Structure formats: structure tokens, C-alpha cells
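RECORD TYPE: protein structure
NAME: Leucyl/phenylalanyl-tRNA--protein transferase
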Amino acid sequence: MGADLVPGTLLQAYRSGLFPMPSGDPGDPPLWFLPRRRGVLPLDGLRVTRSMRRSARTMEVRVNTAFAEVVAACGDPSRPGAWIDDDVLDAYTELHEMGWAHSVETWRDGELVGGLYGVAVGGLFAGESMFHRARDASKVALMGLVDLLVDRHTSSRLLDVQWSTDHLASLGVVELTRAEYAARLARALTLPLPVAFDRLWAESRTRWRSDGV
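PREDICTED:
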């Protein structure tokens, strides 16, 4: 318990296998977790159902076009177990503006219906949260994320989902011991960012400059 959510602290935490969550008490510093059993999704292990494929055909996947909206939706206080507060939103929005945090969004008829966000450091993508307003919308976003991460380094990349749940396990998430996770993390951090994220970040910076921002 302690420290802050400034970019340097957050990035060092992810490189060390830690991730933060608010304590739940206003004014208290964040809590930092390093689970004994860590949930990860093998990039070749995502289980795509017929329902997910049908839904994917009705949705458009976008990246980094509505980051703050995705985090805010993930933090909707009406959701069971909601834990994302304004401090988290501000911290990860700053990471996004620096090119470290990314959102993968699902859109239908021009409306944001689902998505996820997380932090990309080398070959690590640390997923933070996801939401849906239409059936399978968050799962389609996960399908889009996996597509972005697949390249010649796929076998060494690490898609971290923090903890495994019955729902995540049904999608292919497995558990690693703390030691196994540390070894996988050390290897992943030696890799470059996925080409897709480098390209998308460059495009977004060009778009912002052309808009005069």
C-alpha cells in the first residue's frame, strides 16, 4: 500500500509484475498486487465461439479513438465490483497521451458498445478492464486485441489479465505461478512493441497535430 499513480511509478510497477487498484477508501493511497496465481491469455488460445463470430460481423473494431470513454465505461459505478475512480481515469489517460496505454473498442452503427484498455510495455500487454453494452462486445474487442498482438514474436508476448475467473477461463485464460509469470514477463520485456501499436500511435500523433492539438 502506498506510492502514487504517476507514469513513472505505474510503468515501473508493470515491469516488476505489479498492478494497482484503489483501496476503496477516499484519500488512501492505492494498493499494489502481485498475485500468487496470475491469469494470462495465450495468444493462440483464445476460444472464439460461433456467437462471438456472428457478433464480430456486426461490429467495427477501433483502437485509441475513445480511450477516456472506455475507461469511464469500465468504471461505471453501477457495475458490480466497480473499482475505477477519477484518480485511475486521470492516471491512465496520461499514460495514453504518452503512448503507453491503449483502448480497443467495438462500435455498432456509430455507437460505442464495448471495449477494453490496458498498458503495453515491450511484449507485455497488461489488460486492466473491459465492458460491454451489447452482447459479446467486450469479447469482440478481445478478439481485436489478440489480432493486434500476433506477429513473429507471438510465442513470447504476454497478455496479462491479472486474475483468472470462470468467465475468463471460458475464453482460454490460464493461470501461471508467480515464478512462471516473472520468467515470462522478463522475456516479454525484451521485445519491441507490436508493430500495430507503433503504427497506430504514430497515426494518432499525426492526426492530433493536423487537428492543431
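COMMENT: The first strand starts at residue 19 and ends at 21.
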